[in-house]
Structures are given as structure tokens and as C-alpha cells.
Amino acid sequence: MSKCLYHAWTREEEKKLLQLAESNGHKWKELQRNYFPYLSSYSIKNKYRQIKSLQSCPSIQSQNSSSRLKQELNLTAESTYETAEPISENISGVQSQCQQQSDQLTVQLQIIAEQLRIIQLL
């Protein structure tokens, strides 16, 4: 079977990938062969890394972080109220870290662009 060039991952597939990688390890070829035969092992590995990256930097997720947490954990209204303040503080801290990383990358890109400009002048 040929591997598809593009695959729109479903929520269920993402959860399955995370569970399988945690329980079976990062054996991408084995996961591909046994669970995702329509994808390449490279695609599976990249998707796993993308998910983990998004989990560590929730400010770049497409959904609102607090509503996504509520959906994933199936929190009731009472428990959401009790945990809202600590979650909000945590999200603010993570967003701050992401912004710092973004600023550092911007500076690095500016340096690289300047170096390329100098090289082109030579």
C-alpha cells in the first residue's frame, strides 16, 4: 500500500498515537506497520513531535487553552471554578516562556538575515 502524501489527523488518531508512543516507546516503524499502515514512519514521528511541542507551548494552539483543558479533562463547573486561578497562572507563565522563545528566535533570524546580506555583498 502506498503512503499518502498528506493526512489530516483526527483527534482520535492523535490520542491513539500519544498512547501508543507512551506504552510502546518511540518505535516509529513498528507503530507505522501495526497501527498506521497508511502513513510513513517519518510522518508519525513528526506528528508526535508536533503534538508534544504544542503541549509545551499552549499559546500557539488554535483553541482557547482553558476551554481545551476543560474538554480534555471533562471538568465539571465546580472543579473548573476551583482550579481556574492556578490554571490561569500556569497558562500565563507558559505564554511568557513562549514569548521569550519567540523573541530569541526573531533576534537569531535577524542576525542570520544580516549575515546573508553581507555574504551576498561579497
Distance between the termini: 50 Å
Q: Please tally the β strands and state the result.
A: 0
Q: Can you count the helices? A: 5
Mean pLDDT: 75
The coarse overall form would be flat
Low-pLDDT ranges: 75-80
Taken in chain order, the helices and strands follow as HHHHH
Describe the 3D structure.
InterPro entries: Homeodomain-like_sf, Myb_dom, SANT/Myb. It comes from Hexamita inflata. Residues 1-56 form the HTH myb-type domain. Pfam families: Myb_DNA-binding. The chain is 75% helix and 0% strand. It is built from five helices and no strands. α1 (11-24) crosses α3 and α2 packs across α3 (41-56).
For the structure shown, list the relevant keywords:
122 residues, mainly alpha, 75% helix, SANT/Myb domain
Short description:
The chain is an all-alpha fold and 122 residues long. It is 75% helix and 0% strand.
Walk me through the topology:
Elements: H1 11-24, H2 28-34, H3 41-56, H4 65-73, H5 77-121
Helix pairs in contact: 1-3, 2-3
